[in-house]
Amino acid sequence: MEKYPLSAIRILVVDDFSNWRRQVVSLFQALPEWQVIAEAADGLEAVQKAEELKPDLIVLDIGLPKLNGIEAARQIRQLSPGSKILFLSQNNDLDVVRAALDAGALGYVYKTSAVSDFLPAVHTVLRGQPFVSSSLKGHEFTNTAGEQPPHCHEVQFYSDDAVLLDSLVRYVDQGLMAGEGVIVIATREHLRALEEHLRGFTIGMATNRFTDAYITIDAHEGLAKFMVNRWPDDELFLEFVMGLVRRASARGRRVRAFGEMVALLWAQGNTTATVRLEHLWNSVCKRKSLPLFCAYPKTGFNQEASKSLAEICAAHSRII
């Protein structure tokens, strides 16, 4: 299997016309951080590959065999909610455009306008913002389905640090490349390893730190900000976390976060506080539409803790 740089924006291109797919792929070859990881020629194949590969961006046609693009988008939103969808279609019917956006797409580009609109659309959609072709600008479109979900709280149970770091590096770098603010609350060991992995292919890290686009916090120090008698104090937690979010969201940036303070509480055997902290994070995620990624090592789980583990899983929208 071909190896792509961890910083790459991973793209799935879906169109039943092979010549058109080749043209789209050639456009993405302009920058090394854009990597087409797969192509599909029909809607069912698109859904299958989206579920399997979890691409960052899916370029999708409307008139696909086996399953039309709109229905495919609906299914993809359920199976790969983190994938951003951009329709590229020759269909200029306004009702079709509305249906496509309602199905979960962030953008819609006419193929006849692709020369001027496609690349700007890609950049806009990757930032999490809506885009429609210039000829559609005078029309109103409600695109609530295509926006990021109110919150996306993912958890990964990892076998070793290498597995965690692979996911974390991709998560951080893709956020920075999309112009987002990124908050990382991790152990000192993981912060050091993350810095080593990011060095050399994430551009402008000094600037990102200076502008608070990239904020790192030691997880032990973070816990000390709000833990009182081995229990997370609601008010102190919100003061701590919302302060970080305000810093990271400067200049109108969207924000994403990673945290493993919950893993530290779990390792201490404080399972009830772990579950409570997950729910406190959920309150912030919902309030600020904040994507959150957290992680636990697989070691330390046993049958006695199975009830708390089930509650932890229930607090997340996706389990890895």
Can you describe this structure?
The protein starts with 8 loop residues before the first strand and ends with a strand. It has a six-stranded parallel β-sheet, sandwiched between helices. The protein has a six-stranded parallel β-sheet with strand order 9-8-12-13-7-14, with helices on both faces. The protein has 13 helices and 14 strands. The chain is α/β, with parallel strands linked by helices. It has two domains: 9-136, Response regulator (Rossmann fold, 3-Layer(aba) Sandwich), CATH 3.40.50; 153-319, Rossmann fold (3-Layer(aba) Sandwich). The protein has helices at residues 18-28, 43-53, 69-79, 94-102, 114-126, 161-177, 188-198, 205-210, 219-224, 234-248, 261-267, 271-288, 306-314; strands at 9-14, 34-40, 57-60, 84-89, 107-110, 131-132, 153-158, 181-186, 214-218, 227-228, 231-232, 255-259, 292-297, 318-319. Helix 12 runs parallel beside helix 13 (306-314).
List keywords for this structure.
320 residues; alpha/beta; Rossmann fold; six-stranded parallel sheet; 13 helices; 14 strands
Highest CATH level, the class of the largest domain: Alpha Beta
C-alpha Rg (nearest Å):
21 Å
Largest sheet: 6 strands, parallel
Distance from N terminus to C terminus (CA atoms, Å) equals 22 Å
CATH superfamily membership of the largest domain? P-loop containing nucleotide triphosphate hydrolases
Task: State the CATH topology of the largest domain.
Answer: Rossmann fold
CATH architecture of the largest domain, please? 3-Layer(aba) Sandwich
Strand content: 15-25%
**Principal-axes shape call:** elongated
Strand order of the largest sheet: 2-1-3-4-5-6
Helical content, roughly? 40-55%
Counted up, domains total: 2
Structural class: alpha/beta
> What is the N-to-C succession of helices and strands?
EHEHEHEHEHEEHEHHEHEEHEHHEHE
Tally of individual helices: 13
